[in-house]
Amino acid sequence: MKRALSLCLVLAAPAAAQAPGGPIAAALATAPAGTRFGLLVLDADGRERVAVHPDDRFMPASNTKIFTTATAYATLGDLSLPDAGGGASVRIDGRDVVLAGHGDARLSSAADCSVDCLATLADAVAAKTRSVRDVIGDDSWFPDLRWSPGMSWNNIPTRSGTGVSALTLDDNELPVTVTPAASSGAAPVIAVAPYYTVENAAMTVAGGATAIGFDRAPNGRVLRITGTIALGAKPLRERIGIDDPADYAAWTFRTLLRARGVNVTGRIVVRHRPPGPADDPVRRGGAPAAHPPEPQALARAVPPPLAGDVRITNKQSQNLHAELLLRRIGRVRGSGSIADGQAEVRRVLAEAGVPRAAVDLSDGSGMSTYNRVSPRGVVTLLRWIARQRWGAAWRETLPVGGADGTLARRFAGTPLDHRLFAKTGSLNATSALSGWLIAKSGRTLTFALFANDIPDGASATPAMDAALEAVAAAN
């Protein structure tokens, strides 16, 4: 069933597009019944070209990353320099070794790692001592807020909902491979690092599509694998989330130390910092948070520039990286809490002239179902970004239609191929796309487009893409 859509198409738009039954409205009307749209398109002079419920509030999904990454550019200094302040460090504390995180999202234990490597810190310990007691993972640089308010609990076992920690390793994900057995009725072969205990309830079957499920209780260390995989099928490779990243990093670090001949006689220990009143900027009265001095490090990793991390965050829509950026933003004047990060975001939005009622956010990635934004609020921010000295660098982090990131397969072969630069967003019943497009006339238009209340199992993406192509054609 088609819905009537209220459109306001103004100025130089062709007559065919001005009518409620024009091509933009017709494109949006192809979406599944019940879908609710918000769209605003402005030209370079700030004049409205298209307006569909531009001041209504919508769930933005990963368009939330626009707010987080723009605030990172606005508050964290020169992001083109090496990230000296963010790297993990290691120190010897009595007989224990302490691995401490500082919010870096890219620390790696990969065998082929060449930059920002956990092995570098293990080498430093091995050069200093041949025996340690406990291996301590310390993520107290941020308060222990591993999941944001409003994130669905069912995402926790997945890579989309992995725990957020100042001590992050390998994106806080664990690879799992499921390979069919040699005979039907047998359990498939599971390949996974022994950090989790595996309960293999899956089965190899004679034929059919692979349907493997992964489940784990929050903070649980038992991974239950169910479902079926056919004889001769390609191995299924999946990555699952880690709930206590500091524990996992310390566990992995112990393995690296032992491989270097360091005798580890004690346990894996974690040091979290429980959140408290000092992590709330309102309760602090806006005063800066106190930061106690950190002990001298034996060695410290130096990650690449944060500009590259912003690129990963926006191009790939990487949730964990966005959440770590929010907490790092929150440590500029605060404690590194989610609330302190959001206070910095609101400060930037006020400077950009975004109305307070246009934006309410509860996380940095868009996984929270509590987030709400209006198309006008997003477009106002985007136009402000374009005027900043770092605006061009930030825009380069966005996916490009038909070219890369989450837009690599969208708009290819259309008039917007390589002519649309925008952040995507996808969540339950939600789809979003906001950024810039180059219209048929050569004009650059700023836009924000949201679809909410999409029926289960349906997609509004084709309608959204067709609408934006119609916008480009009409301008």
Automatic annotation (TrEMBL):
InterPro entries: Beta-lactam/transpept-like (IPR012338), Peptidase_S13 (IPR000667). It comes from the Bacteria. Residues 1-19 form the signal peptide. The keyword Signal applies. GO terms for molecular function: serine-type carboxypeptidase activity. Keywords: Hydrolase, Signal. It holds the Pfam family Peptidase_S13. GO terms for biological process: peptidoglycan metabolic process; proteolysis. PANTHER family: D-ALANYL-D-ALANINE CARBOXYPEPTIDASE, PENICILLIN-SENSITIVE CARBOXYPEPTIDASE A. NCBIfam families: PBP4. Belongs to the peptidase S13 family. This is Penicillin-binding protein.
